[in-house]
Design a protein that fits this description.
Helix 1 (5-29) crosses helix 5 and helix 3 (48-60) packs antiparallel against helix 4 (66-92). By secondary structure, the chain is mainly alpha-helical. It starts with a helix and ends with a helix. It has helices spanning 5-29, 36-46, 48-60, 66-92, 96-142.
Length: 144
């Protein structure tokens, strides 16, 4: 069985960092009281229940069925997202409606950041391809 540890870590850490960055971007515009450090710490503490539940699920998975495991994981996700929401509510001292709006905007901001990152990656790939073909063409012309 092949396991890419770097990819697994990236799948766990990237959404966390994207949410913290996008949340900071929008809350700085919407008069939030939290700094990037506060958002990072609140989000990290809020994901602690999911981490604990996943560690507990390893020995428990020997005794429960797949459907029960899904209920257990669903509970940990709901608990984690609720804690993230409450952490955002307390960190920025928002009302519930403003916190919901900020959460939706943070998710949209995460998508925009991903889109821009993919766009930059594609642009760099195109520039590299152009420079490579230019080098190849010049080397062919010099060898004639």
């Amino acid at each position: 069985l092949y396991l890419n540890v770097g990819l697994e870590v990236l799948k766990a850490v990237a959404p966390f960092l994207l949410f913290a960055l996008a949340n900071w971007c929008f809350t700085s515009l919407m008069d939030g009281d939290g700094s990037l450090k506060d958002i990072f710490c609140a989000t990290a503490f809020a994901t602690l229940p999911m981490t604990i539940c996943n560690f507990l699920l390893v020995p428990i998975s020997n005794f429960v069925t797949l459907e029960e495991e899904g209920i257990y994981l669903g509970f940990s996700y709901v608990w984690c997202y609720g804690m993230v929401f409450l952490g955002m509510l307390v960190t920025h001292q928002y009302s519930v409606s403003k916190a919901i709006a900020t959460a939706v905007l943070s998710i949209v901001g995460m998508l925009v950041i991903i889109f821009i990152a993919v766009l930059i990656f594609y642009l760099c790939q195109q520039v590299f391809g152009f420079v490579s073909s230019l080098y190849t063409e010049i080397s062919f012309r010099l060898n004639e």
